[in-house]
Amino acid sequence: xxxxxxxxxxDDDGNRKGSKLLKNHLQEVGNAIxxxxxxxxxxxxSLVPELGYLLGIAHDFGKYTIFFQDYLxxxxxxxxxxxxxxxxxxxFASYLAKKCxxxxxxxxxxxxxLFYFVALHHHGDLNALELDLVRVxxxxxxxxxxxxxxxxxxxxxxxxxxxxxxxxxxxxxxxxAELLGDCKTINVKIEDFLDSWLDLLSKLYKLRYQLIEKExxxxxxxxxxxxxxxxxxxIDADKKDAANVTGIEKRKIPGDLVDKYRESxxxxxxxxxxxxxxIRSEIYRSVVEKISKSSSHHIFTFTAPxxxxxxxxSFSCALKLREQLEKEKGYVPRIIYxxxxxxxxxxxxxxxxxxxxxxxDFRENENAYLIKHHHLADLNYKVEDEERPISESLLLVESWxxxxxxxxxxxxxHTIIGFKNRFLxxxxxxxxxxxxxxxxxxxxxxxxxxxxxxxxxxxxHLNCYIILLTATKxxxxxxxxxxxLLDNYKKYFKEKNLDRVTLNPDVNPKLLDEFFQKFKGLYDxxxxxxxxLNTIKSSIIFHxxxxxxxxxxxxxxxxxxxxxxxxxxxxxxxxRIEKVKGVLREKRKIIVVSTQVVExxxxxxxxxxxxxxxxxxxxxxxxxxxxxxMNKTKGVVYVFNLVDNNTSYAKYVYGNTHFAVxxxxxxxxxxxxxxxxxxxxxxxxxxxxxxNQDASIxxxxxxxxxxxxxxxxxxxxxxxxxxxxxxxVDLFVEINKQAKELLAKYIKEVVNEKNFHxxxxxxxxxxxxxxxxxxxxxxKLSIGLGQVxxxxxxxxxxxxxxxYKNDTGFKRIEDNSFIF
Length: 820
Hints:
This protein is an alpha/beta fold and 820 residues long. It is built from 31 helices and 25 strands.
């Protein structure tokens, strides 16, 4: 009797031995998916747990071949690709699903097609459904002569695989009889499957045609969500079972935890009725009262001025809604707090962490309650007072196994509108969740229509709840589609007590030299200044002008001139922001020269803000760094229009439309904070009319056609929240001896490590620290830099002074391109 294995491990001598029997792996994955479906929040996908079990026991059927077993133990890659197990497993999965097929079920009849598609791609990214099937007439030809490569080779390989399986048919049949022991109504005969596989492929092709060409939009969208849900369930259960990672027990969080935190905090005056603290308390009371009466709604807006306590208030709303849903619907939703930039995540994460620290077992089980997930975050996972191994932590963090997840728009939106395996393995954990999107106006306007439609899909099919947080209410949803948590929010913008700043624009073009002279004229050494410029080039030039001018020598001498941008390594940027906060607490006066990295969410408070012209919402966001604490003296936000060769820097960064609209709306105006809300409304109304929605339309069409990735057609993979920067390379900066040692460790334990699993574990164990020394620079300026590998360059520690400055980062002043 042959023993079939699903996975093997390598000992210290390089010998491979089986680590898990295939039948055990199939059963464990099937049971895991079944359990996940049972405990999923109520949804409209009509998925029964038994279907999940069938998908689990079918997904690796193709490993029952000598070709795969040779590959597993001897690393023999068959020249005819017969060791591949994806396609044969996918066809078998469709065979099992067909056993549950009801001809008159307009939804369930497509389950064989879904099983096929999901199992086919469970080791890779999702493809276009139309690329994964062969025409019926081509399947009927001998040797598949009309089938184009690579499909012809795949079909030929299948014949050999089926022939091999037939040699062990009694054993495989017995193992499946055991696996299907509880499924009495399903009569599975492997021999019948071997005889009918071509008919199955033909029927799948016909199903695909009927689904895409004949079905109504609602059915298509329901099936789209089902595909993502099943795919996520399968890949998450499969990866965790292979790594022997067990699930995490759900944790209780009281709905009034933020109330208790506010009462116990020495920094929060909950009794205040005047000033900024009075406004924060009033807003807090209003929104938490509103949420308790609104569980029938699913999409909320929370619009309030910057600095009025939206983080705590929204988190309290989420906890209260979570508690209410548990009582009314019997499930406990996750809370997903999503922000646009990694640079502002730490601040909000710490606020939530401080609240959760009131829980008696939080220290021992921190990550069961709270995780932070983005490309610079720690991958450590602590539960029951023990840190899990890095490979286990990675699976738990990336699948969002926690009660509260603080993450980026990239992680959230590329999961909801996604095709990549590594993003989609957490999709099932979004079901039933409460999603908070902070600073939602940062989603590009061309995707607003798409975001509207996709979030309504999540509400309809996965019972999600959405809270949109912003100080600049974008027009993503119509008023009729949302429930405002803060009624009459505009009164807080027009509140006399909140009249913190005046906006003073001058939109006439100015060269940097002219702008510098203008700044010298308005400079008052008794004030602190934040200067936000649109490009790294202009920000470095302006910083150096200040540094070299006699008027500002005292600031330089006292270390009160700061520079912030993506041109300095992330580690230094974070350290510098903390240093700025410390100097401000000491009541010393400073100048901070920055790009847009400080625009939203960075909690610093300066007297005067100066900004190069940009989108109105960006200007209002940066105004939130001015007189944030509502000091006695009113703040001023100056806006200038800086040009280079007669072209505004703003056009390079934001394009003509945003620049033109802002230019018109600001020209000749002197605006008080009470007018910001109306100004923003005007801006978004004009932008929405002018901005082309073709990107949303194309991706929405791809969703309805199940086109996840297609090399020659519009597909879901075209969705890019942040446009890829072409012509740039990643650069590791050996800024100190610690960085030099870390890079040496990376080369030794990652680049030169032959064992894939060791290499992966080694990388993830240093990932956070390693990425904190990396910046992106124009490729044309990288000549002469050291090469780590094909993806990464380096500035050696010994050459640091040639290429990098501690204050402004990479030496790129001669560059004519723009990064932000």
